[in-house]
Amino acid sequence: MKVLLVGISAELATVVTKVLGARGHDKVTARDGVGALEVVARDAPQLVVVEDLLPDMSAADFCHRARAHPGGAEAVILVITNHADALPSVLDAGATDLYTTSLGPEALEVRLLIAERLVEQHARLRTREFRIPSPL
To answer: Which pick of 30, 72, 74, 115 has the fewest CB atoms within 10 Å?
Structure first.
């Protein structure tokens, strides 16, 4: 699976790399939102993990822009934040899920595994859509 890691801090990178690296995913990193949007447009990653606040934009702004790209329209986007009150605005902007750092590293591991399963479910649903004939 193609995974894009955006603005992930060193302390969280250890957890994210442990979970996703152990599962053999193809990871690409970007330090800021603009660089990440270039990766979204070019590579269409299936999973995007973004830590708020990026150097050049908020995670909500990134989600909104990523969803506008064809490469980001179907991605599962997990936002990591220090602000639990960010949930409504981030979800409204297009995030699939939100993890607040106050929950601890074990909860992040769980959120990453859930995001991975969501990617797999989305792929199965797309496969089904292609197999179902449309009515004439």
So the answer is: 74
How confident is the model over 15-68, as pLDDT tens digits? Answer: 999 999 888 999 999 999 999 999 999 999 999 999 999 999 999 999 999 999
Question: Higher pLDDT residue, 60 or 126?
Answer: 60
Is 31 buried (19+), middle (13-18) or exposed (0-12) by CB count in 10 A? middle
Contact 56, 65 (CB under 8 A): no
CATH class of 2-131: alpha beta
- Best CA proximity match to 52, nearest among 65, 61, 64, 41: 61
CB atoms within 10 A of CB 106: 9
pTM of the model: 0.91
* Pair of tokens at residue 36: 């990440």
Q: Are 16 and 45 in contact (CB under 8 A)?
A: no
The per-residue DSSP string of 72-117 comes to TSS-EEEEEES-GGGHHHHHHTT-SEEEEGGG-HHHHHHHHHHHHH
Domain coordinates in residue numbering, the chain: 2-131
Question: 66 near 40, Cβ under 8 Å?
Answer: yes
